[in-house]
């Protein structure tokens, strides 16, 4: 399965990229994935040109294809003015409107203070719901004081387990029958998602 991490971090090194890497590693511990990272910092000029020309440059086109073809996404943004960054939003504005329909997505964000933690619920979750993605229940926010804290590791593992469960359910179950698809009962899908949460309590 293909996992794509979209990181909107601006600095090098970036805490946003670090959080994305830790989430991807946690998913990889739970299910086999081939991980690709899309650094939006490197695509800023091509994203801007896409708005004025209507056509993506070579690197941007490759990034858009990677996101479209992924079996699951981890999206991570720094918080600016109590919301996602403009670069982050611009990338998803140039993505095809149907590219994320039905795709499992784990939302995450970084910021200087815990006061911005609700950005996951009031900004990121509505954005990806609008794009018709399947957003995992647990979002991960990391403030400056969270790095090295026990609670962050627990949230990372829980969210990664939810994403891995959705990715495995969608890809492994689909070709189970020749000439059609096996429908996974909703109760089974809920059980797969809730099992890691119960163990984590």
From TrEMBL:
Classification of source organism: Bacteria, Bacillati, Actinomycetota, Actinomycetes, Kitasatosporales
Presence of the UniProt keyword Repeat in the record: no
Provenance organism: Streptomyces longisporus
Domain NADPH-dependent FMN reductase-like: 1-147
Keywords, comma-separated and alphabetical: Flavoprotein, FMN, Oxidoreductase
Pfam families given in the database record: FMN_red
Keyword Metal-binding (UniProt): no
Annotated protein name in UniProt: NAD(P)H-dependent oxidoreductase
InterPro entries: CE1759_FMN_reduct, Flavoprotein-like_sf, FMN_Rdtase-like_dom, NAD(P)H-dep_FMN_reductase
């Amino acid at each position: 399965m293909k996992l794509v991490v979209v990181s909107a971090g601006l600095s090098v090194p970036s805490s946003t990229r670090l959080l994305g890497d830790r989430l991807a590693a946690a998913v990889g511990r739970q299910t086999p994935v081939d991980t690709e990272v899309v650094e939006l910092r490197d695509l800023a000029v091509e994203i801007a040109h896409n708005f004025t020309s209507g056509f993506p440059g070579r690197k941007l086109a490759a990034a858009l294809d990677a996101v479209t073809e992924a079996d699951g996404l981890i999206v991570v943004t720094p918080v600016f003015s109590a919301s996602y960054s403009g670069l982050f939003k611009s990338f998803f504005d140039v993505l095809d409107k149907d590219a994320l329909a039905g795709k499992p997505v784990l939302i995450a964000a970084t910021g200087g203070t815990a006061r911005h933690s609700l950005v996951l619920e009031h900004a990121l979750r509505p954005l990806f719901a609008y794009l018709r993605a399947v957003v995992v229940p647990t979002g991960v926010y990391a403030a400056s004081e969270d790095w090295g804290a026990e609670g962050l590791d627990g949230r990372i593992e829980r969210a990664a387990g939810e994403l891995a469960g959705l990715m495995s359910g969608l890809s492994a179950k689909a070709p189970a029958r020749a000439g059609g698809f096996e429908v996974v009962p909703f109760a089974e899908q809920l059980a797969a998602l809730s099992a890691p949460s119960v163990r984590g309590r």
